[in-house]
Each structure stands twice: as C-alpha cells, then as structure tokens.
C-alpha cells in the first residue's frame, strides 16, 4: 500500500460522535458567551478522555505576513479571553509584538470537535508572566531559565550542560523567573465551534464580537469570571 493509500484508509473520527450540545435551531438559547460554550466543551473533552485537551495550535504572523504556528498549552479562559504563556524573546513573541493578530485552534478528535479562537493577543500586565512561570513544574522552569528559545544550538551537550545548571538554579530558588517569560491574553473577535457527526454532515456556530468592548486585562489569570460579557453575535456557518 502506498503512503497515499494509507492516508486515505485512516479514519479521522471514531464512531458514536456526540451532538453539538446546543439547539442550533434556537441560537438565543445558546450560551451567551463563547467562553461559556468553550468551558462546557472542554469539560466534555476531559470526560471523554481526550488527550491533552488544553493543547492548542497558536498561529501568528510576522510584520511581513509570514505565518508561523506551533503547539502550546492553554493557561486560563476568562471574560477577557484565552491565556497562554511563553518567552517574549521567542519567534512567537516577536511576531506578537509586530502583529498582535493571532489564532488558537483546538482539536478534540474523540468528540469530532474543533474550536477556533481568533483575535488580538496582548501581554498581561503586572506579575502575570512571573506567576505563571513559578507555577510550572521544576523541569519546565529549568527549561524556561535556559533561554535562547528557537536559536540554533551548537550541540546536544551544550544544551545538556545549560539545562543541568538551570535545574540546580530552579531547585535552589523556586522563585527564580525567566525575565522574558510572558503571559498573553488572546482577546477574541471571533470564536467558532465545529462539530462532526456520524451521519449528519458538520455543524458550525460562530460568535463574533466588537473588540472595542472588551475590558482591561487583569494582572493575573486567576479569576474566571464569565459575567462581564461582550455583546456577542451568534450565527451558523455553512460547513
Ligand atoms: C504539547 C506542547 C505544549 C507546549 N507548550 C508550550 C507553552 O505553553 N509555551 C511555549 O512557549 N511553548 C510550548 N511548547 C513549545 C512550542 O510548540 C514551540 O516549540 C516553542 O514555543 C517555540 O516556538 P516559536 O519558535 O514559534 O516561538 C509546547 C509544545 C508542545 C508539543
């Protein structure tokens, strides 16, 4: 069998996919905010045993319009948006400084679901980046303290040495923080929920908001308040 044939023989979704979970004939009754539907779907993903449902693809573009995408993990969802963290000095950090437009894509295969969050990413103020860094496991803090992310590396030994040194530092000082570590909030302009089904095609629901109405980013991504809501428009899309 050729590689091409093997690709075509692969099933994308398992049988027995769930329904959308929202009455798509009555959008007024759908959750008022995309955050509310996202957290409901996230709980479904956890209950279904989806692996790493908090992992998402972050897409960014540089000043010249060249697009870059990579996986990272979601840190919180609040009324302000979807939170993620990384080095400001990394390529993603440079992209977001030059062009804050970004997108997060979640794929929950076992449920036949995809969520796309598109908007503008802004660095959270105050202690948010440092607080996120300190909350990471020891090995992740050591890796973060190494720095130089995405720069060319001379040899594996060079990294092993730098990592071992930083691991000692992380153990000796649990409060040590990589100075470039940053928490960003992706303030959503559009959030789209996509559901496959066994026998009814696909369904798509999009929330759209005016970015001008979103509030200030709080200093730490700890409060998950769904009460301050934008005036969201809900609409169905042709699959
Ligand atoms: C499952 C998974 C989770 C990851 N989580 C993060 C994260 O939370 N923050 C981060 O900066 N990089 C994370 N990474 C690494 C990124 O994918 C990427 O390699 C790194 O951030 C450099 O990206 P850049 O060169 O585009 O800036 C993760 C990778 C994987 C596979």
Please summarize what this structure is.
The protein is an alpha+beta fold and 239 residues long.
Distance between the termini: 32 Å
Total domains? 1
In N-to-C order, the SSE pattern is HHEEEEHEEHHHEEE
Unreliable parts: 214-229
Question: Which percent band covers the strand fraction?
Answer: 25-35%
Would you report the number of β strands? Answer: 9
Shape: globular
Radius of gyration: 20 Å
CATH topology, by name, is Pnp Oxidase, Chain A
The CATH class is identified as Mainly Beta
Mean pLDDT: 92
Total count of helical runs of at least 4 residues: 6
Superfamily (CATH H level) name: Electron Transport, Fmn-binding Protein, Chain A
Bound compounds, each kind once, are: flavin mononucleotide
Proper CATH architecture: Roll
Domain Pyridoxamine 5'-phosphate oxidase N-terminal: 43-156
Biased composition (Low complexity): 209-228
Cofactor: FMN
Family: Belongs to the pyridoxamine 5'-phosphate oxidase family.
Could you characterize the architecture of this molecule?
Belongs to the pyridoxamine 5'-phosphate oxidase family. It holds the Pfam family PNP_phzG_C. The chain has 239 residues and is α+β, with helices and mostly antiparallel strands. It is built from 6 helices and 9 strands; from the N terminus they run ααββββαββαααβββ. Mean pLDDT is 92; it is low at 214-229. Flavin mononucleotide (FMN) binds next to β2, β4 and α3. Flavin mononucleotide (FMN) is lined by residues 52, 55, 68, 70-73, 85-86, 90-92, 149-150.
């Amino acid at each position: 069998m050729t590689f091409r044939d093997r690709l075509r023989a692969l099933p994308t979704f398992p049988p027995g996919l769930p329904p959308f979970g929202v009455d798509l004939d009555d959008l007024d009754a759908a959750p008022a905010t995309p955050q509310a539907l996202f957290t409901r779907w996230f709980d479904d993903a956890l209950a279904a045993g989806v692996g790493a449902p908090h992992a998402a693809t972050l897409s960014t573009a540089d000043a010249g319009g060249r697009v870059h995408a990579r996986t990272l993990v979601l840190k919180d969802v609040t009324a302000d948006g979807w939170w993620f963290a990384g080095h400001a000095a990394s390529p993603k950090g440079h992209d977001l400084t030059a062009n804050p437009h970004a997108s997060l894509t979640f794929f929950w295969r076992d449920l036949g679901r995809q969520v796309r969050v598109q908007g503008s990413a802004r660095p959270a103020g105050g202690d948010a980046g440092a607080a996120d860094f300190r909350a990471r496991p020891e090995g992740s803090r050591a890796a973060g303290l190494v720095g130089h992310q995405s720069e060319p590396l001379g040899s594996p030994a060079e990294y092993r040495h730098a990592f071992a040194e930083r691991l000692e530092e992380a153990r000796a000082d649990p409060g040590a923080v990589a100075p470039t570590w940053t928490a960003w909030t992706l303030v959503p302009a559009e959030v789209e929920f996509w559901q496959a089904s066994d026998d009814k095609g696909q369904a798509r629901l999009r929330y759209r908001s005016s970015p001008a109405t979103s509030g200030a980013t709080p200093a730490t991504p700890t409060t998950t308040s769904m009460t301050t809501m934008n005036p969201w428009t809900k609409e169905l899309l042709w699959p």
